[in-house]
């Protein structure tokens, strides 16, 4: 631990920032090819209906239209964990906005005109928007063929139901433990669907050339997974596809897996040699692209006389929306994380996904954790209050510590992370226990919430990297962790520079993947890239430097292990050699040369992760690692209007080695504000008469602006080394937004006595609560 | 089609343009200045912000023909001779950039502010940038960057 780092852990300017502040950074819509065709998608106007007929003929005849296609032209399925969706709706539509047909034309105006000429006849079916109703035995089936769908082994669909996944935790003997409990506290909570709202909407360009090779430029988080799913979907070889990923204008999960790429590719197959561009409008982004799942939550906790939780029932009923190809894995993640960061010996946990006729649920920053922590972290406060224990002390008593077991019976060690330190640091920074001064007629208090999250990825998810040394003693670093704003390019550059013993300015971070040339990466999701891709880059750099040392050992006539490389200089005792004299092979004075161009390769796959037992959820290691954190929020409530002012947010995360302190702070602040949006502003509203999303614009769907942000934010990090992390690092990208909503709700309660159990905590709900308590001014 | 003459990033240009083309599409498709982004096309997110006769405007809400005789600046003006503008430098230094999609619009709004008010308060910065949505940074570093760039009150 005494090693002095030169790049890792050093505040480092983003390597992609110059391109982004000058306008040089290219996003998919900035790529302009001559002869481009423009695509538009014809979408279902029905939430649940049989398709009786589709008439494309008039649209096809419109001058300038080059292709009009629908499901019968491409009757193919897509889905990552659970293959339940056709590229275009076939016999049925299941939500308003579902793709039914698509057009490519010489201009956007013509494509839009063509859409109006497409006629689809539907036979309406009864729609259901309520997952609780959808679970009932006699509920009409949204997917009657559920039993025929392919799912990966960790997913457990219930045949002939609306349930694509049910994850169970059965730990200890909760029934017996509840009987012994001093108090039993049971509460219900609700989370609505929300939108990711990346500033850049989804976009893709596909070109099928005359030889049949298909190139796709896509705003995506995971180019290799896009390639894999496209090859599956179109029943082709991987070599038939080349995916090029330019900069991504925000992802937050909605650009994971595959999205609009199959439609764009299908159109391009009908317009050989022409690039086909599909860029979604903001309205389409809001109602047709995936959203965060809604959730209905019940938690029943049994506590002993000392305030220790001895038993718990956690029930999460997820509204997956119309399809659950990705959502089923959120159900699983919520399952193995079922009671949050707490040490509870007896648990009955059920995480159940249910199909409805709402927009499709999918990955969203936090991957289920934001949703369940909304409930868990309020429940913890409600128990603490009932027991008369301070909320911070209650958490310290019950949280996971070395020796505790998680819901799946994984044993926590001192290396897992230090939640106690996170809680104490956060409480100190927010001034826990100190009275905050409120304005006249207002109420003010601090609330706290914890977070834990693990990367929810398949156990064989792998990362690869290549480090090519160059003639100047620098390096090209190739990897396919996607730069979606989180700063992966900078972090990978730092790791490479540190391992190679060269300065950051000699590193060429080649961060925008091209599947024909870049090393493999599964997906940029799950806060796994610093950890997994970081390890791959470190291994590749180490491989390169080992090759350097091997050559230098011959030159120095010493052992390779006695050589060090620092600041671009190869050193053995007092002998030195500039790195650039070895990168392309070393030439002796007489001209003969040893070695040659050095290319390091590295990969990483997390070790020993085991799928959970389908009956009990048991797994000694269900995931690669855990990141713990705590967040406290100082909130003032306007006694007349119910409006909230967020004075201060303080957070602490144990992320192991901080690779780029500036980047980690950026993740903290950005996560807090996105969490605040989910906490007090955001909800996608679906009209249950028509299935229409009622707020598909920035006018009606408010996200935090610069005027809404907290007046102050502070972040700190605890560095409990992740033993298998690159330089001891683990992820933080998602965790920063997980506790915010519950911390706000807890603060509102301490300030006013109003408890809001359904997100978001709007002024309207708070005011109503104040009125009920007679506390409005 | 209509012929318009305007100054773009300091250079005079004359172009033919369709009367129905938005200024944003004209900038991106005809002038090939793709630094200016479309985030919503409805004047709500600020990604398309440019400077028109010294004022920050949403280019998606205007028609190209409206710039006839006007002075137009896009983000590309800021680093004209390969040297970064102080605002750009401070955005990098303070880590005010993440995905970067809002950044050009954010810089344009900040530039328009500093050109008219070289010593803004934090509240004035917030008011000037209120129409620019950023989903990544949490805004904190953006305010710090603009405040730092304004130090000394000599922005030009």
From TrEMBL, chain A:
Gene3D superfamilies: Aldehyde oxidase/xanthine dehydrogenase, a/b hammerhead, Aldehyde oxidase/xanthine dehydrogenase, molybdopterin binding domain. Keywords: Molybdenum, Oxidoreductase. SUPFAM superfamilies: CO dehydrogenase molybdoprotein N-domain-like, Molybdenum cofactor-binding domain. InterPro entries: Ald_Oxase/Xan_DH_a/b, Ald_Oxase/Xan_DH_a/b_sf, Ald_Oxase/xanthine_DH-like, AldOxase/xan_DH_MoCoBD1, AldOxase/xan_DH_MoCoBD2, AldOxase/xan_DH_Mopterin-bd_sf. It comes from the Bacteria. Residues 22-126 form the Aldehyde oxidase/xanthine dehydrogenase a/b hammerhead domain. One of its GO terms (molecular function) is oxidoreductase activity. The keyword Transmembrane helix does not apply. The keyword Phosphoprotein does not apply. PANTHER family: ALDEHYDE OXIDASE 1-RELATED, XANTHINE DEHYDROGENASE. This is Dehydrogenase. It comes from Muiribacterium halophilum.
From TrEMBL, chain B:
SUPFAM superfamilies: 2Fe-2S ferredoxin-like, CO dehydrogenase ISP C-domain like. Residues 2-78 form the 2Fe-2S ferredoxin-type domain. It comes from the Bacteria. One of its GO terms (molecular function) is oxidoreductase activity. Transmembrane segments: none annotated. Keywords: 2Fe-2S, Iron, Iron-sulfur, Metal-binding, Oxidoreductase. This is (2Fe-2S)-binding protein. It comes from Muiribacterium halophilum. The lineage of its organism: Bacteria, Candidatus Muiribacteriota, Candidatus Muiribacteriia, Candidatus Muiribacteriales, Candidatus Muiribacteriaceae.
């Amino acid at each position: 631990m005494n090693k002095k780092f030169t790049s890792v852990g050093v505040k480092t300017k983003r390597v992609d920032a110059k391109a982004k502040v000058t306008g040089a950074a290219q996003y998919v819509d900035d790529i302009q090819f001559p002869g481009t065709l423009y695509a538009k998608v014809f979408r279902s106007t029905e939430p649940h209906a049989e398709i009786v007929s589709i008439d494309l003929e008039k649209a096809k005849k419109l001058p300038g239209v080059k292709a009009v296609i629908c499901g019968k032209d491409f009757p193919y399925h897509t889905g990552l964990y659970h293959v339940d969706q056709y590229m275009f709706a076939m016999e049925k539509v299941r939500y308003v906005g579902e793709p039914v047909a698509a057009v490519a034309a010489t201009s956007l105006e013509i494509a839009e005109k063509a859409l109006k000429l497409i006629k689809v006849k539907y036979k309406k079916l009864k729609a259901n928007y309520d997952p609780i109703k959808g679970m009932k035995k006699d509920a009409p089936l949204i997917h009657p063929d559920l039993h025929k769908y392919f799912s990966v082994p960790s997913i457990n669909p219930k045949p002939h139901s609306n349930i694509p996944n049910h994850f169970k935790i059965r730990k200890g003997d909760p029934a017996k433990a509840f009987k012994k409990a001093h108090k039993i506290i049971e509460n219900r909570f609700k989370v609505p669907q929300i939108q990711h709202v990346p500033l850049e909407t989804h976009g893709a360009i596909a070109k099928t050339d005359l030889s049949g090779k298909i190139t796709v430029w896509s705003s995506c988080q995971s180019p290799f997974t896009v390639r894999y799913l496209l090859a599956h979907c179109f029943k082709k070889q991987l070599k038939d596809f080349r995916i090029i990923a330019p900069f991504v204008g925000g992802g937050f999960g909605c650009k994971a897996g595959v999205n609009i790429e199959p439609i764009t590719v299908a159109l391009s197959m009908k317009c050989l040699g022409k690039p086909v561009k599909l860029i979604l409008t903001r309205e389409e982004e809001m109602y047709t692209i995936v959203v965060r799942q809604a959730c209905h939550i019940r938690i029943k906790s049994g506590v002993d006389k000392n305030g220790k939780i001895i038993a718990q029932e956690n029930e999460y009923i997820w509204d997956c929306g119309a399809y659950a190809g990705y959502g089923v894995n959120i159900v699983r993640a919520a399952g193995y994380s079922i009671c949050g960061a707490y040490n509870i010996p007896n648990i009955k946990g059920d995480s159940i996904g249910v199909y409805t006729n709402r927009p499709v649920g999918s990955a969203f920053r936090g991957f289920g954790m934001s949703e369940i922590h909304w409930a868990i972290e309020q429940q913890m406060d409600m128990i603490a209050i009932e027991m008369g224990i301070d909320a911070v002390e209650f958490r310290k008593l019950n949280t996971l510590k070395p020796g505790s077991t998680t819901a799946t019976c994984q044993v926590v060690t001192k290396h897992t992370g230090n939640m106690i330190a996170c809680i104490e640091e956060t409480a100190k920074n927010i001034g826990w226990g100190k009275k905050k001064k409120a304005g006249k007629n207002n109420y003010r208090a601090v609330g706290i919430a914890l977070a834990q999250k693990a990367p929810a990825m398949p156990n064989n998810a792998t990362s690869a990297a290549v480090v090519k040394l160059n003639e100047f003693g620098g390096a090209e670093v190739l990897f396919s962790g996607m730069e979606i704003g989180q700063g992966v390019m900078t972090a990978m550059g730092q790791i490479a520079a540190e391992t190679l013993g060269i300065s950051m300015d000699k590193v060429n971070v080649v961060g925008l993947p091209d599947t024909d040339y870049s090393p493999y990466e599964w997906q940029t999701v799950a806060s796994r890239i610093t950890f997994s891709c970081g390890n791959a880059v470190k291994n590749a750099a180490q491989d390169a430097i080992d090759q350097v040392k091997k050559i230098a050992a011959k030159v120095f006539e010493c052992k390779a292990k006695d050589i060090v490389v620092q600041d671009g200089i190869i050193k053995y005792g007092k002998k030195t050699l500039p790195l650039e004299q070895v990168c392309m092979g070393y030439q002796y004075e007489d001209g003969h040369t040893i070695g040659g161009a050095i290319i390091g390769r590295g990969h990483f796959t997390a070790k020993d992760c085991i799928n959970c037992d389908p009956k009990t959820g048991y797994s000694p290691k269900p995931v690669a690692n855990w990141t713990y954190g705590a967040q406290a929020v100082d909130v003032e409530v306007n006694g007349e209007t119910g409006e909230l002012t967020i004075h201060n947010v303080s957070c602490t995360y144990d992320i192991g080695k901080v690779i780029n302190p500036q980047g980690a702070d950026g993740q903290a602040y950005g996560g807090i504000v996105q969490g605040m949006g989910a906490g007090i502003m955001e909800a996608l509203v679906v009209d249950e008469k028509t299935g229409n999303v009622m707020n598909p614009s920035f006018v009606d769907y408010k996200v935090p602006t610069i005027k809404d942000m907290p007046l102050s934010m502070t972040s700190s990090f605890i560095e409990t080394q992740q033993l298998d992390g690159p330089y001891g690092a683990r992820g933080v990208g998602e965790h920063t937004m997980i506790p915010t909503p519950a911390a706000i709700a807890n603060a509102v309660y301490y300030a006013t006595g109003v408890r809001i159990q359904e997100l978001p905590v709007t002024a309207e709900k708070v005011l109503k609560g104040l009125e009920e308590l007679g506390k409005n001014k | 089609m209509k012929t318009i003459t305007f100054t773009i990033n300091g250079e005079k240009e004359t172009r033919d343009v369709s009367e129905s083309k938005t200024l944003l599409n004209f900038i991106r498709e005809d002038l090939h200045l793709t630094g200016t982004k479309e985030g919503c096309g409805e004047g709500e997110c600020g990604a398309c912000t440019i400077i028109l006769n010294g004022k920050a405007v949403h280019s998606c809400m205007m028609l190209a023909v409206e710039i006839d005789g006007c002075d137009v600046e896009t983000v590309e003006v800021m680093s004209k001779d390969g040297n970064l503008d102080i605002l750009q430098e401070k955005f990098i230094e303070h880590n005010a950039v993440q995905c970067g999609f809002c950044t050009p619009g954010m810089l344009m709004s900040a530039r328009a502010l500093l050109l008219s008010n070289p010593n803004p308060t934090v509240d004035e910065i917030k008011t000037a940038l209120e129409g620019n949505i950023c989903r990544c940074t949490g805004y904190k570093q953006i305010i710090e960057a603009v405040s730092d760039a304004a130090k000394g009150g000599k922005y030009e």
